[in-house]
Amino acid sequence: MIERELAKVMLNSEQKVIIIKDFNAHHSWWNAKISNFIKTKALIKWVNLHKCNLINTFDVNTYHSYSDQSSSVLNLTFASKNICNHIKNWHINENANTDFNHEVILFTIVTKKVKLIENLLNASYNLQKVNWKNFDKYLQKTKDKMIVKMQRITSLEAKVIYLTECIKNTVKLFVFKQRICAKLKLWWNNEFIEMWKMLLSKKQIWKRCRNDDT
């Protein structure tokens, strides 16, 4: 089955390709506990022929069998050499609760042509001291200019970047970042971090052991 499917995929050196699939193949390249390789000969041959790289984080399970309560690495992500370095942050989505045995895989593709947008929620702003009345007045005053500029921009990505910059500039005028000091009590602390790790661990056990009734 794998041989027939891979035979249809012939790549050239210019193509940028990402392949994600449940290959149902077992190899120590992606799963440390595997000593008996299964359904990997054709796959490894094809990967080496086209000089593709494995993107999976080593030994991270992507499949959980609830019938025999086991886990494995079946869902594999391969990328051609000319794009593999642009793939960042490959991981499984721990928060995705689906009815399937397979994990949800996420990753980011970053290129020179793509400008990443800063997540404004990462900054710690002192929202209690914001003059929201002046903030609103400023937005009302400048919104017509922003709308005109947005209408002239044809690219959706460029519109998002422009709007983000407008928001950031407004925030800089009226919202100040919190000063981090010894007396500042942040609700997210080391205790919460340990509790979060425990939750993820218990969730993995649940995924391996759940049945139709749980």
How would you characterize this protein structure?
The structure is a single chain. With 214 residues, this protein is α+β, with helices and mostly antiparallel strands. It folds into 2 domains: 2-111, 4-Layer Sandwich (Deoxyribonuclease I, Chain A); 120-174, no CATH class. The chain has 5 helices and 7 strands. The strands form 3 sheets. Strands 1-5-2 form a 3-stranded antiparallel sheet, with no helix packed on it. α3 (132-152) runs antiparallel to α4 (156-174). The chain is flat, with a radius of gyration of 24 Å. The model is unreliable at 180-186 (pLDDT under 50).
**What would you give as the CATH superfamily of the largest domain?**
Endonuclease/exonuclease/phosphatase
What is the number of strand segments? 7
Instruction: Give the domain tally.
Output: 2
What is the name of the CATH architecture of the largest domain? 4-Layer Sandwich
| Average pLDDT taken over every residue | 81
User: Which radius of gyration do the C-alpha atoms yield?
Assistant: 24 Å
Structural class: alpha+beta
- Which strands sit side by side, in order, in the main sheet? 1-5-2
Shape: flat
Q: So what's the CATH class of the largest domain?
A: Alpha Beta
Number of helices: 5
Low-confidence sequence ranges: 180-186
Key phrases:
Deoxyribonuclease I, Chain A; three-stranded antiparallel beta sheet; two-stranded antiparallel sheet; 5 helices; 14% strand
Can I get a quick summary?
With 214 residues, this protein is of the alpha+beta class.
